[in-house]
Amino acid sequence: MTLCVRAPGLRHVLADVIQEVRRSVSQDIDGAEILHGLLNAPWLQSLLKALLSAHDTVAQKDYEPVLPPMPEDLPEDEEAARIVCLVKNKQPLGATIKRNEITGEIFVARVIHGGLADRSGLLHAGDRIVEVNGFPVDGMEPEQVIQVQARSHGTIMFKVIPITERPVHNQTMLYMRAMTDYSPQQDPNIPCADAGISFKKGDVLEIVDQTDALWWQAKKLPSSVACAGLIPSTNLLKRKQREFWWSQPYQPHFCMQTCEFLSIPGFRRSMRLCRRRAHSTIHPSCPTRCPSSCYSALNSPYEEVVRYQRHPEDVHRLIAILGPSGVGVSELRRRLIEMNPNIFQGAVPHTTRPPRGYEESGREYYFTSREAFDNMVYNNRLLEYGEYKGNLYGTSIESARHVLNSGKICVMDIEPNAIQAVRTHELKAYIIYVKPPPLERLRETRRDSYITTDYYVNRPFKDEDLQEMEDAARKIESQYWQFFDHVLINDELQDSCVQLLTAVRQAQDEPQWVPASWIRPTAEP
Ligand SMILES: Nc1ncnc2c1ncn2[C@@H]1O[C@H](COP(=O)(O)OP(=O)(O)OP(=O)(O)O)[C@@H](O)[C@H]1O
């Protein structure tokens, strides 16, 4: 490309300005004399000369590549066409095309944000492509058009009939957390697999275009690339999930555990035993009263999220820790609270069991009647609850609120199926998943540790305990990974404690992605 602006024109303009200022001086206009003096000052003159000579040097350079000449034989009566020349580098064009099945005409289906076509500003969704590099494309299959385009090196020329009414984009920033995995390479329906982006559960996506009902454009965060990619819209992904679900052979639905065996967080051994029993017991069919435990494929595939930072004067976020049985959730939680009981505290659970001699209501438990307990269940006041040896145990929202309102950080260990109950506008739970390290490291680090197998029995970990822990971890991860705000691999205990402390501090003091419905109650959950 050759820049055809030459400096002499600019010089003339400057001379005219000086001339004009001189005329103003003779007319005795205020300030004109000062301006005249300034423009004639030797220092300004030499500065302007240097500037103009730099301009001349740049303007006389030839730039590569040279675009092909504009076609001269455009018929007079032709629709107003636009000739678009793009210089292809290694990047894809960043646009998809479609064919009108009735007329056979080829259209730009979408322009990918940040891609080559988008940055040129010359191609738009809805433009009709008439020619590519001089080849008429009407009646061609989109694949054939792509081949013509792919064969061109250096520059590519499109002749397009521009769309008359371009849709107005009043897109606001929108972020979604993926609640499912997606791979464009395994999706036969995507318009162009290379234009798609893959994502995994828990990834945060910046949605840059939702104009198409089926295919959105998004960037996966954190992103350093300018170019967006295609992802299925909520409705399309839901449809895919439904189709997949129906195509699967019937299998009884297994929950990780049922509510009946759900146990209560805390240091108490009975609770942990109850939990362990629950882990090893798989019950068919999911009871309707714990639907959240079965985060099925039919739930929304995306969750709108926003960046949230707790105001220093607001109550703290609830810290909820979970992991497979035996991984060290109780140990880590206990150590955290012991480190600074003035800052960290657990929520006192309720139970229907009678108090033992040394126990005080409100310290170890709130001792309550069965009727009162049932009432709490009925009114959804319990974050989780369960039955062990004929007695009910549960942690109430009020109990967690009590800790938070006292200015402390409430730290709970929960079962995975209580995640939904603590992810609320009020508690704004920060979910920490404790993951076992690889089996080899588990064997090494747990050599001197004890597993609690019965109320009074601790014994060293056996290999099958560790294997079981791994299997349970895999199950939890496959179902709940998208909800984890932090994943802590519990390898060396000391390191894990430091990591936990850091994560808890970040949860309280640094911006985090949280569901938009927590901040804007009108947003869809
Ligand atoms: N990183 C670690 N290295 C060595 N031992 C550990 C580590 N983390 C935890 N332990 C030990 O492993 C044992 C089980 O831990 P803990 O009781 O905390 O498990 P848990 O996840 O609460 O499981 P459950 O809920 O079934 O009790 C304890 O003896 C604990 O001290």
Domain module tally: 4
| Second CATH tier, the architecture of the largest domain | 3-Layer(aba) Sandwich
Q: Give the strand tally.
A: 23
Q: What is the count of DSSP helices, taking H or I runs of 4+ residues?
A: 15
* Oligomeric state: single chain
Are any ligands bound, and if so which?
A: adenosine-5'-triphosphate
Major sheet characteristics = 6 strands, antiparallel
Q: Please give the share of residues in helix.
A: 25-40%
Would you identify the regions where 5 or more consecutive residues have pLDDT less than 50?
A: 1-7, 253-269, 279-298
Task: Give the percentage of residues in beta strands.
Answer: 15-25%
- CATH C-level name of the largest domain: Alpha Beta
Q: State mean pLDDT (0 to 100 scale).
A: 82
CATH superfamily of the largest domain: P-loop containing nucleotide triphosphate hydrolases
CATH topology of the largest domain: Rossmann fold
**Class per helix and strand makeup:** alpha+beta
Shape: elongated
Rounded to an integer, what's the Rg over CA atoms? 34 Å
